[in-house]
Amino acid sequence: MDQTTLNIIVVGLSFALYFAIAIWARAGSTSEFYAAGRGVNPVVNGMATAADWMSAASFISMAGLIAFVGYTNSSFLMGWTGGYVLMAMLLAPYLRKFGKYTVPEFIGDRYYSNTARVVGVICLIVISVTYVIGQMTGAGVAFSRFLEVSSFWGLIIASAVVFVYAVLGGMKGITYTQVAQYCVLIVAYTIPAVFISLQLTGNPIPGLGLFSNMAPGEVGAGEPLLATLNGLLVDLGFNEYTTGSTPFLMALFTLSLMIGTAGLPHVIIRFFTVPKVADARWSAGWALVFIALLYLTAPAVGAMARLNITTTMWPQGIEGEAVAIEDLPDWFRTWEVTGLLGVEDKNGDGRIQYYNEASEAGQAFAAERGYEGNELVTFNQDILVLANPEIAQLPGWVIALIAAGGIAAALSTAAGLLLAISSAISHDLIKSVINPNISEKGELLAARISMAGAIVLATYLGLNPPGFAAQVVALAFGLAAATLFPTLMMGIFSKRMNSAGATWGMLAGLILTCLYLFTYLGWFFIPGTNMLPNTADNWILGIPPTHFGPIGALANFAVAYFVSRATAAPPAHIQELVESVRVPRGAGAASDH
C-alpha cells in the first residue's frame, strides 16, 4: 500500500469517528449547544480543554519556531503554559460560579450594560477570527502534503469537516470530539518523537534525549546533542541554538502570551461545561496534566528536527561537502511538490549552499565555495513536525498517524473558536440585544447559522494568512491580553469598576493594539498595506507587534481605572454580586445555574 493511500485511510477513519460522535452527541437545546448541558465530567473536560488548547500552533508550528530560532522561542512554551495556570487560578472558577454561557454575557451582566456586552462581542470576534486563521493555515499545510491536494482544497475539506460536527453538535458534540482528537494528536506527536530520540541518542524519552549524548554513527557521536547542534550552527555562521534574545523582549513576549492566554474566550467557555465550581478547578488540573505530555516533548522535537535538517544538508558536517541536489532524500522531494520547500542551484555547482551570509564564518565559506546566495530558497517552518517522521525514515503508519494528529490539532481548536464566535453572535447579540423574545428553537437556529458564517469567513482568511500558524496565533494572544483579560480581572476583583470604565478600557486596549499591529502587518492583513515596514528600526521602543499585548493591557487598565473613578460607582446589587462570586466555595445560587 502506498503512503498516500495509507494517509487517506487513517485520516478518513479519524473523520468518521468525529462524525459519529457529533451524531451521537447532537445538541438539542441552547444549553447543550453553548455549554454541553453543564454535565461534562472534569477528567473528560480536562482532556477536551487540552485539545482545545493545543492548536495547530502547538502541534505544527511551535516546534518549527523553536527549531529555527532556538532557546528564545521557548517563550511560547513558558507563556502559554504560565497563562493557562493564570486562567485556572484567577478566572475560570469565578466565571463558572457566575453561571453564564459566554464571556460577553459575563461582561454584559457584571457591568450592567448592553454597550459593554457589544464591545465584548467585538473584542471576542476580533480575537477569535485572528486565532482561527492560524488553525486553518495549519490544516491547509497538513492536507496539502498528506492527502496530496492543494492548500486551497485542504482548507475546503477541513472547513467541511468542522462544519458537520460543530454545527450539528455544538459544545456537546465538540467536547466529545475533542476528547477523540486529543487522543489522536498526543499519540501522533509522541510516537515520532520517541523514535527520533532513540535514533539520535538511544534514549526513548525525548525530554531526556535532548540532554543526552549523540548515538554512535551519528554526527558528533558521543557529544551532547545540544553541543553538537550549537557547533554545526556556529560553523554555518548562525547563533548558538541555546542563545537567548534580549531579556526584556523575551519577558515582554512571555507576559503577552500569559495574559493573552488567560483572556482567551474559547478556552474560558470550556469551564462553563462542568456541573460545579469545584469541577472547574479539577478540570484545570487535569488539563495541565494532558497539556504537559506534549509541551514537555516539544523542545526536544524542535532541537532534534533542526539537527536532522542541518545534517541532511551537511552529512559530514561543515568541513565536508554540502549535499548534492540530486542526492536529496525522498522526503525533501515529496515536500518540494507542495511548494512549501524548495531549492535553487544559484551557482551551478549542483549542491545546496546555505550559510548565514551576514556572519564572518558564512562569508568565509561563501568566498571559498562560490556562494551566490541562499539556495534553500523556500522552507515553511510549519512543515517541520509533519515532516519529522519522513526525515527520520520512520514507518509509513507513523507518517499517516502524524497526518491525522496535525489535522486533529487544527480542527479541535478551530471548532472551539468557531463556537465562541457563534455563541457571541446568537446569544449575546441576537438574544440579549436585538431580539430578547426569540424562542429557544430560533436561538439554536441562529447559533448554527452564525457558526456556518464563521466557518466561511475563517476559510477565506485562512487562504491569505499574515504569517506562520504560531505567529498568527501570537497576534490573537496580544489582542486578548489588551482587551478581555483586564476586563475580566477587574470584573472579578474590583467592586468599584463600573460599566463606563470597562467599556472605555476595552476600546482603548483594542484600538491601540490594532493600530500597532496594522501599522506593521497591514490593514486587516491585506498584503502590502502596512504603513511602515515590520522591522526593528521602525518599532516603538524596539517592541515587535507580537509583543505589544502587555502595553495594550496597561492602556486598558489605566483608562478603565480613571474613567471609573470619574463616574458613578456600580449599583449596590452589582457590588454584592462581585463579592459573592469571589467567595472561594462551590455553594451559592450562581453555582447551581
How do the strands and helices of this protein lay out in sequence?
Blueprint: H1 3-24, H2 30-35, H3 42-53, H4 56-69, H5 75-90, H6 92-98, H7 103-110, H8 114-146, H9 151-201, H10 206-209, H11 225-235, H12 247-262, H13 265-268, H14 277-295, H15 298-313, H16 330-336, E1 341-342, H17 360-369, E2 378-379, H18 384-391, H19 396-434, H20 440-462, H21 469-482, H22 484-493, H23 499-521, H24 549-566, H25 572-582
Antiparallel strand pairs: 1-2
Helix pairs in contact: 1-9, 1-19, 3-9, 3-14, 4-8, 4-15, 4-19, 4-21, 5-12, 5-14, 6-14, 7-8, 8-9, 8-19, 8-20, 8-21, 8-23, 9-19, 9-20, 11-15, 12-21, 15-18, 18-19, 19-20, 21-23, 21-24, 22-24, 23-24
Overview of the molecule:
By secondary structure, the chain is mainly alpha-helical. It folds into two domains: 3-305 and 390-476, Sodium/glucose cotransporter, CATH 1.20.1730.10; 323-384, no CATH class. Helices cover 68% and strands 1% of the residues. It has helices at residues 3-24, 30-35, 42-53, 56-69, 75-90, 92-98, 103-110, 114-146, 151-201, 206-209, 225-235, 247-262, 265-268, 277-295, 298-313, 330-336, 360-369, 384-391, 396-434, 440-462, 469-482, 484-493, 499-521, 549-566, 572-582, and strands at 341-342, 378-379. The protein has a two-stranded antiparallel ribbon. Helix 1 packs parallel to helix 19 and helix 12 (247-262) packs across helix 21 (469-482). The model is unreliable at 586-593 (pLDDT under 50).
